[in-house]
């Protein structure tokens, strides 16, 4: 998923399960989309597929937290 940081899609999904609500959360926790940015769209897709739109404003309500 993220070649620069060596982050897998499994790790991103795990962070989403652990409460990551936005790209900023994923960047802070894993460094995703922090260098070249190529993984950003894929990471956003994982957020959306989890039921989250990635905005982080709902405090987790969109994912049922």
TrEMBL record:
InterPro entries: BFD-associated_ferredoxin (IPR052371), BFD-like_2Fe2S-bd_dom (IPR007419), BFD-like_2Fe2S-bd_dom_sf (IPR041854)
PANTHER family documented for this protein: BACTERIOFERRITIN-ASSOCIATED FERREDOXIN
Protein name (Swiss-Prot/TrEMBL): Bacterioferritin-associated ferredoxin
Molecular functions (GO terms): 2 iron, 2 sulfur cluster binding; metal ion binding
Coiled-coil annotated spans: none
Organism lineage string: Bacteria, Pseudomonadati, Pseudomonadota, Magnetococcia, Magnetococcales
Gene3D superfamilies per UniProt: BFD-like [2Fe-2S]-binding domain
A Pfam family per the record: Fer2_BFD
BFD-like [2Fe-2S]-binding domain location: 1-48
Keyword field: 2Fe-2S, Electron transport, Iron, Iron-sulfur, Metal-binding, Transport
Family: Belongs to the Bfd family.
